Amino acid sequence: MGPDRRRELGGYIRQQRSESRLSLRRLSQMAGVSNPYLSQIERGLRKPSAEILQQIARALHISAESLYVRAGILDESTLDLVPCIRRDPRLTPDQKDRLERIYLACLDANGVESLPADR
Question: What pLDDT is attached to residue 116?
């Protein structure tokens, strides 16, 4: 992970912490990481492990996958659920349609564009 990606990840974590109205100290306690280490992550000086990102995500009540994408651990294309829903043989066509509509509505409500679905 390069310095630009670390800064972008740190800025995103800081933004999420601010929106959750948490102090740096409180988030570090909730995530089980030291205050100085979390500060370094937010400033883009440290590359956190997937485990640390998961702890931070859990404390912020956000998806760990969103942090993994920002950290370059996951490719964003792996997060699109529509193709997975469409391929799942355990679901009826009606269930697939309903799940897809709900998922896309949630993305839209969050201002996120969905990825092209491979149907």
Answer: 46
Q: Where are the alpha helices (DSSP H) in the chain?
A: 3-19, 24-31, 35-42, 50-60, 64-71, 82-87, 93-109
- Structural domain 3-76, CATH architecture: Orthogonal Bundle (1.10)
Distance CA 96, CA 8 (A): 35
Query: Which part of the chain is CATH 1.10.260.40?
Result: 3-76
CA–CA–CA angle 86, 87, 91 (5° rounding): 75
| Nearest partner of 10 among 21, 24, 26, judged by Cα | 24
Token representation of residue 48: 């956190």
In tens, the pLDDT along 9-65 reads: 999 999 999 999 999 999 999 999 999 999 999 999 999 988 899 899 999 988 887
Q: Rounded to an integer, what distance in angstroms lies between the CA atom of residue 46 and that of residue 44?
A: 6
Query: For residue 102, what pLDDT is reported?
Result: 86
Do 96 and 65 form a contact (C-beta atoms < 8 A)? no
Pull the structure tokens for residue 85. 């829903």
